[in-house]
């Protein structure tokens, strides 16, 4: 996502399908890529380099409850809010819309 944000210059993000994370104990987010002792500037484009890459993750706690009926950001579980805020901080792009279920009514405006 970070590479896509840098290339496309997004003003905001629409974070969809957040509800599929409801049952996870923890959520791992890739935060950097390392080959040997060298940190890469982003996801490696070269397949040879990709074979050697070590992914560094940040692990956040899951929220272990359904968010499908949630309609406001403040009503989301605290760990879910922290996950969204981590994404915003890491990408330096605000999340404006949050999809919490399959229907049109399942979109939260942050």
TrEMBL record:
Q: What is catalyzed by this enzyme?
A: IMP + L-aspartate + GTP = N(6)-(1,2-dicarboxyethyl)-AMP + GDP + phosphate + 2 H(+)
Q: Which Pfam families match?
A: Adenylsucc_synt
Looking up HAMAP family in the UniProt record yields: Adenylosucc_synth
> Looking at the keywords, is GTP-binding present?
yes
Per the UniProt record, the lineage of the source organism begins with:
Eukaryota, Fungi, Dikarya, Basidiomycota, Agaricomycotina
Family indicated by similarity = Belongs to the adenylosuccinate synthetase family.
Q: Where in the cell?
A: Cytoplasm
GO CC field: cytoplasm
> Where does this protein act, in terms of pathway?
Purine metabolism; AMP biosynthesis via de novo pathway; AMP from IMP: step 1/2
Looking up SMART domains in the UniProt record yields: Adenylsucc_synt
Name of the protein in question: Adenylosuccinate synthetase
